[in-house]
Amino acid sequence: xxxxxxxxxxxxxxxxxxxxxxxxxxxxxxxxxxxxxxxxxxxxxxxxxxxxxxxxxxxxxxxxxxxxxxxxxxxxxxxxxxxxxxxxxxxxxxxxxxxxxxxxxxxxxxxxxxxxxxxxxxxxxxxxxxxxxxxxxxxxxxxxxxxxxxxxxxxxxxxxxxxxxxxxxxxxxxxxxxxxxxxxxxxxxxxxxxxxxxxxxxxxxxxxxxxxxxxxxxx
Length: 219
Prior knowledge:
Blueprint: H1 17-25, H2 31-56, H3 60-72, H4 77-89, H5 91-120, H6 127-130, H7 149-160, H8 166-185, H9 191-218
Helix pairs in contact: 1-2, 3-8, 4-5, 5-7, 5-9, 7-8, 7-9, 8-9
C-alpha cells in the first residue's frame, strides 16, 4: 500500500469524548445528570456515524490528494514551508506574518500535546472496523485522538497570519479546512476531534496575534 505505515492499536481510553464525559457525569446524580448524559451520548453517536459514513463513501478522485495533503501537514511541514516563503519573499509584512504563524503553531502544539491530549486520552478510531479504504490511509499516530493536532496547527497558522497577509488568509483557511477534513478521510480522527482542534487553533492564533500587537504597540 503506497505511503501507508503500519497501524498501531488505538490508545487505551474512551472511544469518543462523549464517552469520556459520560464516565465523569455518570458519577453525579439527579435529572441534570440524565440530560447531560443523554446529550453527550447522542453527540458521540453522531460523531461515530459521520466517521463511518465518510469511510463508506467511495471517493477515488479525492483519496490520493487528501492522503498526500494529510502527510504534508505532518509536523506542520506545510505551514513552515509557507513561513519560509514569507520570510524570503514577503517583505516586512510577510516576515511579521511568519513570526505570528510560527509562534501560533508552537503555542497550539504545546497546548494540544502537553495539555489537552494527556487529560482526555481518547482512543483512535477503529479504522479497520469502519472499512476505511487502504488507498486513503496514512500512518496511524501513536498519540491519543482528541483533539486533532494537525487541525489545531493548521487553523492557528491561518488565523495568526490573517492580519498581515489577508490575501493569503483565505487560501490558508481553505487549506487548513482541507487538512482538518483529510484527517477524518484518512481514518485517523473522528470529526469531533478535528472540529475542536480547529477551534483551539483559531483561538490560539487570535490570542498570539493579539498579544504581539499589544507588545508592538507598547514598544
